[in-house]
Amino acid sequence: MAGKKQFDMDTALDAAMIQFWRVGYADTSVDDLSRATGLNRSSIYSSLGDKDALYLRCLDRYAARYGDKYDTALSCAASEPLAAVRAFFDVTLERIADPELPDGCLVAQSAMAIPVLSQSVAARAKEALGFQRSRLRAALKAGRFTDQDAETFAEHVAAVNQSLAVMSRAGAGPAQLLAIVGVTIDALSQASRTRK
């Protein structure tokens, strides 16, 4: 097609995701997205959708990318639940330490922005948090935690995981973040010993 600029959809979506991740939904304009993706406004709307639709695509992309990594980390939960939870946190800590990525977490940032998000985007942000709790609950149940303990610790681990992203954005260093993880692993270990 002569005259039409071709672009790579994955590259454009990654650029938009990084833009939203870096400054948040409310502080990202369509002009910001245009600069980030290299697409003009009409191309963004025709190819990627309006701001809400694009944000949903980016949130889904982010959740899938890191969700797969979290699932892999938790895959040993049946035999080694503590190692699985530590590996789960390692996914977050590695993402935080990656200099190519913005600080924090797009899901955590979305959750904090729920009051200014549209209903559909707010619902998707809550859903992403729910997926994290569900995968943790299933892993802890596989690791022979009681239903109640699995539920309680899934809620706790998910909350700590989101707080790591917030703390990193506020300037907490690797040692501080590891100390936060250590407290949670110790609590899980204590609960594990008590069960036996």
TL;DR of this structure?
The protein has a single domain (9-195), classed as Tetracycline Repressor, domain 2 (Orthogonal Bundle), CATH 1.10.357.10.
List keywords for this structure.
Tetracycline Repressor, domain 2; TetR/AcrR family transcriptional regulator; transcription regulation; mainly alpha; DNA-binding; TetR_C; 196 residues; elongated
CATH topology name = Tetracycline Repressor, domain 2
Low-confidence stretches: none
Q: Give the averaged pLDDT, no decimals.
A: 92
How helical, in percent, are the residues?
A: over 70%
What are the secondary-structure elements, in order, as H or E? HHHHHHHHH
Beginning-to-end CA distance, first to last residue: 68 Å
Indicate the CATH architecture: Orthogonal Bundle
Classify the secondary structure makeup into a structural class.
Answer: mainly alpha
CATH class: Mainly Alpha
Radius of gyration, rounded? Answer: 19 Å
Q: Can you summarize the main beta sheet? A: none
Q: Could you say how many structural domains there are in total?
A: 1
Number of helices: 9
Protein name: TetR/AcrR family transcriptional regulator
DNA-binding region: 29-48
Keywords: DNA-binding, Transcription, Transcription regulation
Domain HTH tetR-type: 6-66
